[in-house]
Amino acid sequence: MFDFDNLSEIWSTMRKNKLRTFLTGFSVSWGIFMLVVLLGAGNGLHNGIMYNFRDYAENRIEMWPRYTSKPWQGMKTNRRIAFKNEDYYALRREHPEVVLCSATIGNSDTISYNREYFTGQTNGVFPDHAKINFIQCYSGEGRFINDIDIRNRRKVIVLSPRMAEVLFRTEDPIGKYVNCDNTMFQVVGVYHDKNTSNNSPAYMPFSTAQILYNHGQEVYNMSFTVKGVATEAENDAFEQRLRESLARRHKFDPTDKAAIGMWNTSREIRTFEAMTGGIILFIWIVGIGTLMAGIVGVSNIMLVTVRERTREIGIRKSIGAKPSSILKLIIFESIIITASFGYIGMVTGIGLTEAIDYVMTLSGANSAPAGGNQGENLTLFRHPTVDLGITVSATIVLIMAGVLAGYFPARKAVKISAIEAMRAE
Fold first, then answer.
1. What does the alpha-carbon distance between residue 294 and residue 30 come to, in Å, rounded to a whole number?
2. Max mean pLDDT range (215-224, 261-270, 295-304)
3. % of the chain at pLDDT higher than 70
4. Does the pLDDT of residue 64 top 60, yes or no?
């Protein structure tokens, strides 16, 4: 049975060899510490990059017309493509994968209320635009554009929080009328915008915007979500079918990717996940290498320890000590060193990552807003913490390695006869 006397003896041995004990423990502690910090940094990078996609559906695709770069059926290059209403209606008709769909037409305009005014972007959209882009009108803040608004070409408008703040001050804007391009619009909602940005647009029915801005049947861009398109191959096939259908209507080369701009959120997310996954894999390799260095350090130190104590082992055996008790003593010394210093490394690493996360939260870095425009206010590092289960598992693995590091040399030593052991120098 392992008792207090054994612990006292182990403690006495460690005190006599302070430098050796410290170097052994430091290699263990450093290995755990570096693994935790590196994994925390990798998670911070992954969280930061993926946070930029939080306001987009994972299966969202946006496309806009550009200029042709290839000749087609006698037509020259650099020909402008223009989306029409038919392109919007054909999306669901020709592509069953499309679930939600919205077209956009926009203009920079001045919105006024009494003596207050605000110059900003006004976008004509369809009701699905809110679901595609996670736009919400909270309770008491009205509603978004609906199908009746589109059908009846109603003169209604949904303001951004910043617009409502500037135009109405402390008044409730819901139900009030604002002047937009010399036309009166009724405010039916104020959508939630955590950024309260001056660049956030106001929304009106798409059909109304086309008449107001005299754009006829023209569409600026279209955004939609798809289902059943998960893999890279499925995305490529869907995009190819989409370009082919647009090419038939607008008469351009289906292989001319310059004619239609396309941003596939799913593809972007997979690209960034693959990139961060590769970085985290590299971090794991470096971290495991650091742990291995600690294990090797423990193995070497325990080997030296057993060799130095071979004479002591011989004396113990000569006075009747069982090989199992000697073996147990050495193994427990290895366990105590690896467990205590491993715990110190784990706590220190977790403490550092949590402290960095706390400072970032206080400074607002963990809640950096993503702007309304693509690429605006991006964050690359967020919540650099690591799962506690991973750190505990790594520490347990290191302790088990410490057990093996002490077991094999000790097992070899106790097999030596007492006389030969006492002769050892």
1. 8
2. 215-224
3. 83
4. yes
Question: Which residues lie closer than 8 Å to 207 by C-beta, 6 or more apart?
Answer: 124, 150, 151, 153
Structure tokens at 113: 């209320």
Task: Encode burial over 311-331: b for 16+ CB neighbours within 10 A, e otherwise.
Answer: ebbbebbeeeeeeeebbebbb
Determine the Cα–Cα distance for residues 242 and 226; give it in Å rounded to an integer.
12
Return the closest-CA partner of residue 57 out of 370, 266, 239, 369: 266
- Amino acid (one-letter) located at 392: V
How confident is the model at residue 97, as a pLDDT? 92
Three-state SS for 373?
coil
- Tell me how many helices (H) and strands (E) the chain has: 13, 11
298, 27 contact by CB (below 8 A):
yes
Q: E strands, 66-199, where?
A: 83-84, 98-113, 116-125, 156-159, 177-180, 183-190
Q: What percent of the chain has pLDDT over 90?
A: 36
Q: What pTM was estimated for this model as a whole?
A: 0.66
Contact 68, 263 (CB under 8 A): no
